[in-house]
Design goal:
Layout lengths: L2 E5 H6 L1 H6 L5 E5 L6 E3 L2 H24 L1 H11 L8 H21 L3 H17 L2 H7 L19
Parallel strand pairs: 1-2
Antiparallel strand pairs: 2-3
Length: 154
């Protein structure tokens, strides 16, 4: 489905016209000094979520039945995995697949983005031997003692 752009002020002035666009397009409402908004029919969103869930199940099945095919797919989709060990690549593939599936089940995908970012950051650190050595310890405590626990929330 194609996405069209409208301004937020257009939506406020002519909401029926903007909503009419939803029959054929999703709509991005551009706003000044604020994040853009995304308008979509609920059925379209449900369809996207079901599709993502289906793809996550397929990824899980491929990973279980053919680890080599999954490794090839991961390497192709995410070139930075070159810096991960074989075990780390499999851990990444497993975590990504489980996170996508779980995210689809609750229709919230921010953890997928976080998972990708964290693994990419790990690969970036591993690509730099000096940084890897620095972050691998040993660590010297220079603050003078234990950090106290924060007070309990009421």
């Amino acid at each position: 489905m194609q996405v069209i752009e409208r301004t937020f002020s257009e939506f406020l002035r002519q909401p029926k016209e903007v909503v009419a666009n939803l029959a054929q397009h999703d709509v991005v409402l551009r706003r000044r000094n604020a994040p853009d908004l995304y308008l979509s029919l609920a059925a379209s969103d449900t369809s996207r979520t079901k599709t993502i869930e289906c793809l996550a199940r397929l990824l899980g099945k491929i990973a279980a039945d053919s680890p080599e095919a999954m490794d090839n797919a991961i390497e192709s989709a995410f070139p930075w995995v070159e810096f991960l060990s074989t075990d780390e690549r499999r851990d990444f593939a497993d975590e990504l697949t489980r996170t996508i599936l779980a995210s689809a089940s609750v229709q919230s995908f921010s953890l997928v983005e976080q998972t990708l970012l964290e693994w990419q950051n790990t690969a970036e650190i591993l690509s730099d031997p000096e940084l890897t050595a620095l972050l691998s310890g040993p660590f010297t405590i220079t603050h003078g003692g234990r950090v106290p626990c924060p007070p309990a929330a009421d």
